[in-house]
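User: I'm writing a short report section on ligand binding and want a predicted complex to refer to. Could you take this sequence and NAP and write out the structure as tokens? A short remark afterwards would be nice.
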Amino acid sequence: MKAIRVHEFGGPEVLKFEETEEPWPQAGEVLVEVKAAGVNPYDTYMRSGGYGARNPALPYTPGSDAAGVVESVGPEINDLALGDRVFTTGTISGAYAELALCKRSQVHPLPQQISFAQGAAIYVPYGTAYRALFQLAQARPAETVLIHGASGGVGIAAVQLARAVGMTIFGTAGSEQGLELVRAEGARQVFNHRSPDYQNEILAATNGRGVDVILEMLANVNLGNDLKLLAHLGRVIVIGSRGDVQITPREIMARQGSVIGMVLWNTPDAEAASIHAALYAGLENGTLRPIVGVELPLASAAEAHRRVMEPGAFGKIVLLP
Ligand code: NAP
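Assistant: Sure. The structure tokens for the complex follow:
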């Protein structure tokens, strides 16, 4: 089969489009014919070798989010049929490939009205947004949420989830088309995080009260200011960060606020099961509609890795084998 292989850690150029051996499912495993693979910023950090002891063994195939059909199943699997439409929440062999070997627990039904490209845009973005909003921030209807970086994969997912439960949403983006997308998906007001005074505009939009919840995609830039935008008992969930930041702890103390960090892969099984059930319901009833802004051939994985780190996000980038 064709797959993207990484033989050494480094820049996007280490992503090689190659012929490699087809995997074969053992007991409890499923082989998925990949129709689309999602590109997450995390895939680029891993490719760079930035995870220390948790780096994958070389060579490896990147990617955890795929959508496609069941190609074959190993012994002991009798609840999936060949050809079933599915999406993955992780793989054993990597998603940037024509075939992906998965554990049974990593394979989930893909509702009929969700395309394969959308299916590759589900788990990391929507799972992260759901866990941040509902399991960690314990967000409630009628609360206000600032989605700081709402135009990307996680941000759009969070906008749709927050809208579905009746929260008031403020969203930021850095481009006109991103701002338009965030507004169209349900934000009450949108703000450009490249404008000099936008934090004061957000505070003014809450009449000075502040927001109940902040989902933060770039904490190293924003966390210090986020604390000043929080309402009493407000919660900041740190989803993304690419460096250090200075904060004033008194801003948290004065509000009795909380700053909670998260990594999706640390979600306990029982809470992951809640996430899967909630996302399936939302995808099936049309509340959740993944936005795919860019589709590229699998061979263009290096270009996808460059683009996912550039400004001007518009939903997800997916690769098509
Ligand atoms: P993405 O699709 O590339 O989107 C990135 C978002 O960040 C865009 O909305 C972008 O806006 C925005 N952004 C850029 N500059 C910003 C600024 N100064 N302030 C606020 N937002 C800014 O990435 P993603 O998949 O949504 O992921 C977002 C971040 O969360 C990444 O750092 C990712 O690694 C991390 N993440 C963490 C977890 C976890 O488990 N903790 C899971 C998933 C993702 P414009 O492009 O419009 O400027």
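A remark for your report: The longest strand covers residues 29-39. Residues 40-42, 124-125, 128, 148-155, 172-175, 178, 193, 217-218, 221-222, 239-240, 262-264, 308, 311-313 surround NAP (CB under 6 Å).
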